[in-house]
């Protein structure tokens, strides 16, 4: 096979969204990589089984790749111990194939700041997950600068959409509302907070994969208009045609519950995102590549609700 395979490492919500975007753009040869070698939505897609944290496996899984999309991540509580090794394996696989490596990153490395987030901000995170993200980004950019592998990093804010469950706008909002339960959110609902639709994140990453001008740099992926979290909830309730009771967790409540709940204990590190304005600036991306059409939140929410309804129907049928 000639070297034109697009390899997506990780078959979670972001990996699946990247796959959909590649197919939309007419890419024929797509290889999805995960640990099981199985994928429910694998029509016309190669699915490969392997552990990319193992260098030899990563090299084999990335064979013939033109672009490798790093959309993989370990469990949320295991980032410091497992994420760097995973990323180094993917880097080795892309380097061996001579492929471009596009990394789907988040915003944890910046830490708390009082200004909109731009790519020029220093990495001031003090928590272990933020420092892990900063370390991996630094390693990837250093590998690019040293000529080891061609890298571009795309960063997005808290995302939501089809397949997204573990997010501040995930199952505890969409799933709970559809089940008639009170929705559960963090912090202050009346401050602006950028949310990124998962398909917009994927569209931005694929753009980076097609643009050599993107290499060697960090890019903030365009998101639709920033609203307050409460305004986002109102859009969700409008789509559902019904409101739900809203439960919010304060920092003190997260600290207390976190004594018994590992996920909430981990979230405390980034709770500042939900206490102060959290606005993503993507002007650098638009200046370089033109204005990328983002999905209006109304349409994105409609697609997300549709996915949750279908998932819940399938669960009831089982």
Please write out the topology.
Elements: E1 5-9, H1 13-24, E2 30-34, E3 46-49, H2 55-61, E4 65-70, H3 79-97, E5 100-105, H4 128-145, E6 150-155, E7 158-160, H5 171-178, E8 183-186, E9 192-193, E10 195-197, H6 198-210, E11 218-220, E12 227-228, H7 229-240, E13 246-249, H8 251-258, H9 262-267, H10 283-289, H11 297-317
Helix pairs in contact: 1-6, 2-3, 3-4, 5-7, 5-11, 7-11
What would you say about this model in short?
With 318 residues, the chain is an alpha/beta fold. The chain has eleven helices and 13 strands. A seven-stranded parallel sheet has the order 3-2-1-4-5-6-11, with helices on both faces. Strands 7-10 form a two-stranded parallel sheet. Strands 8-13 form a two-stranded parallel sheet.
Structure overview:
This protein has helices spanning 13-24, 55-61, 79-97, 128-145, 171-178, 198-210, 229-240, 251-258, 262-267, 283-289, 297-317, and strands spanning 5-9, 30-34, 46-49, 65-70, 100-105, 150-155, 158-160, 183-186, 192-193, 195-197, 218-220, 227-228, 246-249. It has a seven-stranded parallel beta sheet, sandwiched between helices. The chain has a two-stranded parallel ribbon with strand order 7-10. It is built from eleven helices and 13 strands. The protein is α/β, with parallel strands linked by helices. Helices cover 41% and strands 17% of the residues.
Known CATH architecture of the largest domain? 3-Layer(aba) Sandwich
Q: Which of globular, elongated, flat, extended, rod-shaped describes the shape? A: globular
Cα end-to-end separation? 40 Å
Mean pLDDT level: 94
Structural class: alpha/beta
Sheet-strand content, in percent, reads: 15-25%
Count of DSSP strands: 13
Annotation field: number of helices: 11
Strand order of the largest sheet: 3-2-1-4-5-6-11
Number of domains: 2
CATH topology of the largest domain: Rossmann fold
User: Rg to the nearest angstrom?
Assistant: 19 Å
Into which percent range does the helicity of residues fall?
A: 40-55%
- CATH class bucket of the largest domain: Alpha Beta
Please provide the ordered H/E string of secondary-structure elements.
EHEEHEHEHEEHEEEHEEHEHHHH
Domain NAD-dependent epimerase/dehydratase: 10-211
Protein name: NAD-dependent epimerase/dehydratase domain-containing protein
InterPro entries: Epimerase_deHydtase (IPR001509), NAD(P)-bd_dom_sf (IPR036291)
Family: Belongs to the NAD(P)-dependent epimerase/dehydratase family.
């Amino acid at each position: 096979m000639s070297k034109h395979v697009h390899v997506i490492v990780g078959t979670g919500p972001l990996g699946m969204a990247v796959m959909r975007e590649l197919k939309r753009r007419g890419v024929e040869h797509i290889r999805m990589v995960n640990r099981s070698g199985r994928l429910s939505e694998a029509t016309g897609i190669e699915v490969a089984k392997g552990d990319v944290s193992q260098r030899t496996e990563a090299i084999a899984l990335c064979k013939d790749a033109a672009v490798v999309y790093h959309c993989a991540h370990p469990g949320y509580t295991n980032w410091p111990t497992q994420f760097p090794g995973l990323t180094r394996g993917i880097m080795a696989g892309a380097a061996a194939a001579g492929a471009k490596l596009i990394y789907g990153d988040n915003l944890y490395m910046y830490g708390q700041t009082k200004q909109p987030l731009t790519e020029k901000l220093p990495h001031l995170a003090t928590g272990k997950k933020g420092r892990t993200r900063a370390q991996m980004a630094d390693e990837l950019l250093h590998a690019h600068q040293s000529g080891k592998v061609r890298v571009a990093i795309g960063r997005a804010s808290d995302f939501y959409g089809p397949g997204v469950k573990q997010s501040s706008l995930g199952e505890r909002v969409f799933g709970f509302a559809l089940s008639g339960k009170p929705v559960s959110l963090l912090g202050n609902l009346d401050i602006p907070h950028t949310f990124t639709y998962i398909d917009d994140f994927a569209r931005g990453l694929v753009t980076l994969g097609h643009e050599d001008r993107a290499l060697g740099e960090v890019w903030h992926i365009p998101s639709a208009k920033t609203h307050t979290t409460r305004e986002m909830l109102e859009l969700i309730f409008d789509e559902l045609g019904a409101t739900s009771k809203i439960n919010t967790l304060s920092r003190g409540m997260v600290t207390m519950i976190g004594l018994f709940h590992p996920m909430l204990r981990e979230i405390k590190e980034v709770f500042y995102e939900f206490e102060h304005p959290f606005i993503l600036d993507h002007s650098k991306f638009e200046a370089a590549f033109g204005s990328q059409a983002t999905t209006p939140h109304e349409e994105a929410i409609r697609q997300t609700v549709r996915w949750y309804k279908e998932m819940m129907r399938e669960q009831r049928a089982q």
